[in-house]
Amino acid sequence: MACAICPLMSKWTRKLKSTIAGNPAAWRLVKKAQEVKYDYQYFRFHGPYSGSLASTKEINLEFSSACNLRCRFCALDHLKPKSYMSTKVLDKVMESLLHDPRFSRVKTLNLHNGGETLMHPRRVELFERLAHYKKIFHLKNKAYPRVILLTNGMLLREKLSRTLLSLHTLDEVGFSLDGGSPEAFEEMRVNARWEKFAANVEHFIRLKNELSPKVRTFGISIVPHPHPLNDSWMAPDFQRIARMLDSVEYRRLHDWGGQVDIGEQQEVNKKGCEMLLRQLVVLPDGAVTVCCNDLNKKGVVGNVLETDLFDLYRGQERMRYVHLLKEGRKAELELCKDCASF
Ligand code: SF4
Ligand code: SF4
User: Fold this and answer.
1) Backbone phi, then psi, for 125, in 5-degree steps?
2) What is the pLDDT of residue 266?
3) Ligand having the closest approach to the CA of 189
4) How many angstroms separate the alpha carbon of residue 1 from the centre of ligand 1?
5) Beta strands 146-151 and 108-111: pairing type?
6) Are strands 146-151 and 172-176 parallel, antiparallel or unpaired?
């Protein structure tokens, strides 16, 4: 499940963005502030006096490059060969987090990127590995990152929900529910069936209340223009499911780094990128890319099966992104040149 928007953008950032949307002067100020922040972070993590601590705060793990849906707005290339993460790749990442103190800022593991996480044929085995690492982290008195699954919900049947919740490795589970009515949902999320989705969400919430009540649920909902960014206008069936979740983020569509035409002009941030400093994304074959906007391997900087994760983080290829974005030379980066996301 590729996120339609970043579910981890802070509540305040989202609030600020929705408040200033439509006010170009305020928007320019925010962009300026983002550039200043990037300069500061660049100095802190890559300047002459920086230590060896990685700026990375979250790692996205793409369990599956394949997806069972064909959402109209998605940038995922469904023709590329399907691949699924091996336990070897997962172990490489988790061992780096466990043993390398330079990654001590990593607080989140996002189980999503391109594809649908639950499409993995041996998904339970990977979740069991995560549960295993959670125990080891705790035995070593190390903070274990929050684990967040974002799914399109179509494969999260009752039995799988029970299995995943019984492992106690998930902290948050997010569902994508776009459109505002069952008909619009099915129209936007091609191949999805509202009835099945709604039943899966209901079962999941009932089971999580029974087995693992601390698991937080959230929704991400794309709202088409001209509807307001709330559920007041939505169909009762849709509202009922949305209101069962702990929170729902109503957002406009983003353009996946300029790869999807969303029919509206977005201002391209000229300098810096918070996402680049905050994220690393590990793809099913172990390839590491710079951010979650890269659904089709344009920004790969190496592979964890061949190179240590920190060496990829500090490696020449990733640093090329860091330096060029610092200088405002976004146009020279194929992945970034049209990106208006961050
Ligand atoms: S097709 Fe839909 S569910 Fe699948 S990755 Fe794209 S946005 Fe996510
Ligand atoms: S595509 Fe480039 S500019 Fe956009 S979020 Fe990713 S790294 Fe940042």
Assistant:
1) -60, -40
2) 52
3) 1
4) 5
5) parallel
6) parallel
Q: 290: which 2 tokens?
A: 């710079």
Residue closest via CA to ligand 2's atom 2 equals 336
| Interatomic CA distance for residues 255 and 163, integer angstroms | 35
**DSSP state string for 14-72:** HHHHHHHTT-HHHHHHHHHHHHHHHHHHHHHHHSTT--S-----EEEE-SBS--S---T
Task: From 183, 163, 168, 150, select the one nearest 213 (Cα to Cα).
Answer: 168
Ligand closest in space to the Cα of 113:
1
- The answer, yes or no, to whether any atom of ligand 2 lies below 6 A from the CB of 281, is no
**What's the number of CA atoms in the CB half-sphere (13 Å) around residue 310?**
15
Distance between CA atoms of residues 121 and 85, nearest Å? 10
Q: Which of ligand 1's atoms lies nearest the C-alpha of 114?
A: 5
- Residue 7: predicted pLDDT: 46
Distances in Å between the Cα of 299 and the Cα atoms of 259, 334, 337 are 13, 8, 12
Q: Which residue has a Cα nearest atom 6 of ligand 2?
A: 291
- Over residues 82-125, the pLDDT tens digits come to 999 999 999 999 999 999 999 999 999 999 998 999 999 999 99
Q: Which residues pair with 221 in a beta bridge?
A: 250
